[in-house]
Structure formats: C-alpha cells, structure tokens
Amino acid sequence: MTAPLDVLVVGAGPTGLALAAQLRAHGATFRIVDRSLDRVRESRALGIQPRTLEALAGFGVTDRLVARGNPAMRLRLHLARRTVSVPLFDIGLPDTPYPFLLFLSQAETEHVLGEHLTARDVSIERGTELVGLEQRGSHVVCRLRSRDGAQDVVSARYVVGCDGAHSTVRAQAGIGFEGYAYPQTYLLADLEVEGLEPGAVHSYMTGAGMLFFFPLGSPAPWRMLAMRPSDAPDVEVTVPLLQQIAERYGADGLVLRDPVWMTDFRLHNRGAARYRSGPFFLAGDAAHIHSPAGAQGMNTGIQDALNLGWKLALVCRGAAPQELLETYGIERAPVGRHVRRFTDRAFVIGTSANPVLRFARAQLVPRLAPLAVRATAPRGRVFRTVSELGIHYRRSPASATGTRPPRRGPRAGDRLPDRPRGLQARVAAAPGWHLLLTGPPRLWPDPRLAPVLDGRADLITVHRLDDRGPWPGVAQGLVRPDGHLGYVARGAGLDGLGAYVARWLPIERTGHPG
C-alpha cells in the first residue's frame, strides 16, 4: 500500500472534477476514480447558473465554458393563442459578471474541467471501481478494482462520494437516501429542430403538461424535454414518437430530425440523511437528486464540491481545525433541502394531473403571463433564486460579524458580490483567503496587520480597496476560498478579526496529522 492520501474522490462527473480542482489548488494529495471508461458524451445536465460560473472563475475555466456555451437570454412561452417573450435574468443580477443562464452540455463541461486537471498533472482514473471501504483508526482502507480485474488498495484520510444517485460511498457509509419517485415518465432527446427561433428557450404549456426545447449547440442544436402523456404507448423512444408528442403539446410546424441521443427516464426526489459520516462525505447527486426544474442539479453539486474541497485541504495540512469539516453539512444540507423543495413545487405545477393545476396551466397562465412579464420585482426575486446568487451561510459557525457590523453591504456568510465591478476577478486571482480592507490606506499599515497575518502569509492575501469596496466607509471582510464572507466588521479595530482567524486558521501547523 502506498503512502496515505488526504482524499479519495469517487466519481469524475462535474462534482468530482470540481472537487479535484479545489483540492489541487489547495495542495491536498488525492486520487480521483470513476468506474466509467470515459466521460459522458451525452448532454445530460445543460444549464450553468451565474453563481457556478463565478465559483469556477478562480480555476480559469469560466471564460472557456462561456465561449463554448449559449448564454440564452429569453424564454419564448408558447400559449394556446399567443407567444409571450420573457427575458431571462434581465433584472436582479447587477452584482455578477455573468448575468445569464449558460446552456452547455455536461459533456463539454466535463471536458473543460478535465483539461484543467490534466494540465496540472492530475490523472483521472477511469475504469476504476470502488468495491470496499474499511475504517481503520484515522484512515480508510479503500479497495479499488480496474476493468481487467486487478485490485488496488488505497489508504486515505477522507473519502468523498461524488458517485451519483446509486452512490457506493453512501451505501458503504450506511447513510440513508430518503424520498420518493415521481409517477410520470419523461422523454429526453438532443436533436435538430426545424422551425424554432434560435437563441431562446421554448416552452409549450398545456393542461396535459409542458414541453421544452433548450438551445444546446453541441452535440446537437436542441435539447427536447417532455412528459410522456399517460395514454401514450410505453414503447422505445423514436423520432416519430417525439414528433407525435411535440405536436400533441402544441408544437405544430416543427420538424424533429437527426437525433444524437434519445432516452426515457423516471425522476426522483431524494436526499441523504446526512452529508458526513466520520471520514465519509457526500456531494452532488450522491447527496441529493430532484427534478431538472430550474437547472439546479449539476450547479448544486459543483458548489457542494467547492464548499468542501478547501476545507478538506486545509484540515489535512493542519492549517484548520477538524471543526471546520462539520460546517460542510451545516452549510450545504439546507441548500440541498431548499433545492429539493423548490424543484418539486415547480415540477408539480408544470406536470400535475390535478384538475385545478391543469386548468391553471391551460386557462390562467395565458391570461397572466403578459402581466408577469411587467412585474419586474417578482421576476427579479425569482431570477435571484434560480441563479443561486442568493445562497448564503449566515447561520454557519464559520460566519461571524464584529461588534460593529456594516450598515450596508454583504453580511458574513454571503457570497462576495462583484461590486465594484471586477472585485470578484481580483479576489479569484489566487486561491486561499482574501482580506478586504476599505477606507484610507493609512489605516491599514503592515505593522498593524502583522498579528493577524503572522504565520498565515501563505493563506491570506490582503487587498486595500480605499473607498471602492463592497461596504461604505471603513470596513473589513475576510473572504473564504469559496467566495463567501467568513468575517465582516465596520471600523479599523482588528480584535474581532484576530479572534476569527485564531479559531479557523490557527498558526500551529501539524502537517498531515494522523
């Protein structure tokens, strides 16, 4: 057996790849394995939210994702007698450099993240399956098997299951996966569609349900998603079947052809009973699965990974206490529960056979849709939720406010906004923590900061922002490696900041304990 790893990452989908990128950036030793021989080639998940684009910017991959994707800005809602054009993310997002929903196939997302890791000498071990876990003292003995039957035994301090809804890590750790399956069957296809206006999302709403076409680009121009009508034959998915169902939902005049991928599937709404059990952690679909409403799934998984990765790395380096790992479940489990509730409500409204909801879809939506377009405040709140920019960790033990909280601006636990414009890019330029100091530079000379930074120069980067910071007047904020504010205070006093870093970034280093 080789020397113990810090982390074994099981699963090389978007969640596992993002976790590996975070571990690599923060100096952890790890391996990433996946039982599949190759990355996905189908589109699968296809929407990247603004918050995810922000969170990945620190790895230098966001511009490449945007260049490959389609930043759709409008929803074309096809109703019985009219078509309503609804702007997507046109309001409510003034504090992000990515005010759009990016449509990009999961295959392309994995390709970009994989290239990032390969360029940093990280090998993605495909065709390697986790077959057993055994905790022995401070380490976990992991049995791996390759496709040729060869066995490998790895010792790791922590194991993270990014291995999907049927997670081996979750099963081996004895963590329950609670929830239910939806009764309907859904059809999915990536294909050519003649007759659709390009560059927009198209939705056809009827009493029977909803049909969507999403602009994809690659591996096909369009992604089709539809519920199989209850009286439709349960037969193999074919283009004629998709054409028939599209016309049944009101998509007359469209011609479907040249599919790259077609399938049918059932949806589930399930969540892990806990996100951690001793040295075992869950992220992504291993921790939560739900309907695709709102394009939340892959994004939530990536953000799980980016919340967890730096914490594991710092604890393994001895730069942070074990207590920091407890904040992962405290912070991310509520996000997972919210996403499950939110997607469930949206999904039921759009697909339920309940007579009241069928009537609402067929009769009320056509009348109310034009009014909703003009209701800017509610739309802004919805966009903020869907974009995931509103996610915060204000109740986390790792979020603290000084005795004089700022009167305005982001609070401890909030994501760092891009105000002033370009602030996020400046902070994302280097991995680690970032100390933001506003007010006259003379208030922040190096000798005053020395007690806070002593022994932590490799962990904290200082930014003196004058009056260009996110808070008015004199203030200080410590940004965590995942872009959320750990500590915020008004004034030039540093006692509170000193206490915060003493708790979460103690100077004593123990290397790789255990």
Describe this entry's structure for a reader:
The protein has helices spanning 14-25, 50-56, 62-68, 106-118, 168-173, 239-248, 297-317, 323-351, 355-374, 376-386, 423-428, 446-453, 495-504, and strands at residues 5-10, 30-34, 47-48, 70-72, 74-78, 83-87, 101-103, 124-126, 128-136, 139-146, 151-161, 177-194, 201-206, 209-215, 222-227, 255-272, 276-277, 280-282, 288-289, 400-401, 433-438, 460-464, 475-479, 485-490. It is an alpha/beta fold and 514 residues long. A hairpin with a 4-residue loop joins strand 5 and strand 6 (83-87). Helix 1 (14-25) runs parallel beside helix 4 (106-118).
Give me the secondary-structure category: alpha/beta
Helix content: 25-40%
What is the alpha-carbon Rg in Å?
24 Å
Rough outline: globular
In angstroms, what separates the terminal alpha carbons?
16 Å
**Proportion in β-strands:** 25-35%
Cofactor: FAD
Domain FAD-binding: 6-342
Keywords: FAD, Flavoprotein, Monooxygenase, Oxidoreductase
Region (Disordered): 394-420
